[in-house]
Amino acid sequence: MQATVVARDGIALVVHPTNPITGLTLVQAHDLFSGSLGDWQALSGVSSPVQAVSREDGSGTRAAFEALVMQGDG
Asked: What angle do CA 34, 38, 42 make, to 5 degrees?
């Protein structure tokens, strides 16, 4: 047997349509989800509290996000 990759999952970060952010770096995403950035003003210039929402514990998508973005700082 030989393993062959046929597809990969994608992870999307979604913001409210009124938020002017058009892209985030991995560091910015990490800071938003770790709580070290608590207001969008630092990134978009518009003051609004960050409300991070994630998949439930045990989710494969959450595990991938924690490994790739949070790097153990979840």
From this structure: 110
